[in-house]
Amino acid sequence: MKRLEATFRQPRSMLHPMQRLIRDEDVVVRDELRTWNFATGGAVEYALFYVEVTDYERYVAELESVDSIREYAITEVDRDGERVSFYLYVCQEPREADLLFRRAFTALNLVVVPPIVYDEEAAMRVQIVGAGADLGRLLENVPDEIETTVHEIGAYDHRYGSLAGVLTDRQYEALAVAVGCGYYDVPRTGSLADVAEALECATSTVSDHLRKAEAAVVRRAVDRHGGLTG
Predict the structure, then answer these.
(1) Which of 72, 116, 128, 147 could form an SS bridge with 33, CB 3.0 to 4.6 Å?
(2) What is this structure's pTM?
(3) What is the number of other CB atoms lying within 10 angstroms of the CB of residue 158?
């Protein structure tokens, strides 16, 4: 069993309206497709996203304008100033562009491992597991107009997954700034206040982001080595 990690970048003409919002405007800072039910031949499909935005009203207005979305529900999980994070459940009609991409997977014994993470260009970073031959055929079957970047091909081991699914963008940013400020140097050369100043937010907010990020990284490190012992 092999694992393929790749990014697929669709031309703008193939993008879902909510993906165009990612590419065209500075509204969405994180978008992950966490799970889905794409029934073959079905009239509707269901999906659950985790989303972080800087303009909640703008995002919702775009949702309301998409004709293919039959219904949706939002569960807010956090607010940090203008930044809002939430889960989005969507029931929608599949578009022809969506079906075109999925046909590349048809008749292949492959499993897509959630989450699918969208970058600032609305390109999809995906982990796919299956036989090496099927993964090769998948890459051959992807429509020519979709740019494909292969990041890694190797044996599948969930312990060595990326941090994409466990850190939010804000948590990653806080960690990166903290490293740059010397907060994690030994001995420490930067303070929490230095990190807060660089991020232009309160020290309590920075502390919260760092503690959550540290917890996520530590848990992932422990999981990679088989969990706690003794």
Answers:
(1) 116
(2) 0.70
(3) 11
* pLDDT tens profile 171-208: 888 998 999 999 999 999 999 999 999 999 899 999 99
Q: Which of 55, 36, 52 is nearest to 44 (CA)?
A: 36
How many CB atoms are located within 10 Å of the residue 181 CB? 21
CB 126 within 8 A of CB 7: yes
106's CB contacts (< 8 A; 6+ apart) are: none
Choice between 38 and 194, residue whose per-residue pLDDT is larger: 194
Pair 199, 174: CB distance under 8 Å: yes
Dist. CA 62–CA 170, nearest whole Å: 23
C-alpha dihedral sign at 200, 177, 169, 148: positive
Tokens matching residue 141: 């079957």
CA-CA-CA-CA dihedral for 90, 95, 100, 103, to nearest 10: 50
